[in-house]
Design a protein that fits this description.
alpha/beta, TIM Barrel, 8-stranded parallel sheet, 32% helix, binds D-xylitol-5-phosphate, binds zinc ion
Length: 220
């Protein structure tokens, strides 16, 4: 049985020499969110884009900017990403000394809050915050790079988080991020995910046919 899930293509796998065109193409191809991976070369061993680039992309589309902050410290950048046009701001609890304070900083900006779990992080790290956030981002690869191999062991904690959300009748979304392809997307959905991030599968499969790849992931 295939149920509708949201697709959030990661522009980390896009052609950075024409990011604007790529974002417009993703909107046309039916993306639900645009996943923007921000990396600072400190929290993760890679460096990507900052608020200035997001500010330039913002007027090109009305699509939700699902901004994944792999930066630390994170608090002093929340306002910048909010003003740049982020709609969902997701951070890693390891990047702050006070998770609830970071959640409130994002809420004060009237933005949706996401909190992320790295593959080896236990759900105890975020359990107490589930009802305070709009989205839980389950990393199925070590953060830092696209094109890595999916880590199926994260599906166990995904199921647990789905159970907690359902039991408390929360609207919190579960987003999975890293190594998603046409085969493992079904498993992720069965584990309770309702938003799928994908970079390399969407941009590289079927000669880069964005619309086809988004559709296959959505209905797999
Ligand atoms: C990795 C990023 C992911 C990554 C996904 O640190 O958070 O969003 O870009 O890319 P794929 O789908 O290629 O693993
Ligand atoms: Zn990401």
């Amino acid at each position: 049985m295939s149920s509708i899930i949201k697709i959030s293509p990661s522009i980390l796998s896009a052609d950075f020499s024409k990011l604007g065109e790529e974002v417009i193409a993703l909107e046309k191809a039916g993306a639900d969110y645009i996943h923007i991976d921000v990396m600072d070369g400190h929290f993760v061993p890679n460096l990507t884009i900052g608020p200035e680039v997001i500010k330039k992309l913002r007027p090109l589309t009305k699509k939700i900017f699902d901004v994944h902050l792999m930066i630390s410290p994170v608090d002093n950048f929340i306002k910048d990403f909010s003003e740049a046009g982020a709609d969902i701001i997701t951070f890693h609890p390891e990047a702050t000394s006070n998770t609830l304070n970071t959640i409130n900083l994002i809420k004060n900006e009237k933005k949706k809050v996401g909190i992320s779990l790295k593959p080896k992080s236990k759900i105890e790290l975020i359990k107490d915050y589930i009802e305070h956030v709009d989205l839980i981002l389950i990393m199925s690869v070590e953060p830092g790079f696209g094109g890595q191999k999916f880590m199926p062991e994260v599906l166990e904690k995904t199921k647990l988080i789905r159970e907690i959300i359902n039991k408390k009748k929360l609207k919190t979304e579960i987003e999975i991020d890293g190594g998603i392809n046409f085969e493992n997307c079904k498993q992720a959905k069965e584990a309770g995910v309702n938003v799928v991030v994908s970079g390399s599968t969407i941009f590289k499969e079927n000669q880069g046919n964005l619309k086809k790849n988004i559709e296959i992931l959505r209905t797999s």
